Amino acid sequence: MKTVYEWKSGFAEAAQNYISLKRQAGMKFETQERYLRHFDTFYYINGFEGSTLTKEIVNDFIYNPNERPTSHYNKEVLMRDFAIYLTDRGHHAYVVEVKTKLPRCKFVPHIFTDDETRRLFKAIDNYPLAKMSYRNAVDPVLFSIFVWYRCTDFRGAEPRSHDVT
Questions:
Q1: What is the per-residue pLDDT across 46-61, written as a single tens digit (0 to 9) for each?
Q2: pTM here?
């Protein structure tokens, strides 16, 4: 059975209201809620009192040396947004700057020309015959489905539910 988290810090009510607000806006907000619970525990265990977010508190929470840059980035974004929420409601809060840069993918996809696509289909259609195998019957169909799936930007369930008749 799942236990209900007991909020401990001076931010308990504000954090719960913030989570409710985000969920009412249609967000799942599960990971962020977990981070806010960690912050609540961190704030309480370290003996901080009241409901003021200082630079020291925020930075100590965000930049844990045992965590990866992705966690730092996620915490920066969450704590920035939470601080803005708090300041909008009259609290004093340090709004952290999001400064962690995450590595981005540098992959550039190759987009086949019409000629390349025609040549691919022709190569598959002209496979050498294989004895005692269904390869010649199956491979062209699988390749066609794969190309159709990749070239039409369908998501996973769409090709299966798409009416081809």
A1: 998 888 899 999 999 9
A2: 0.65
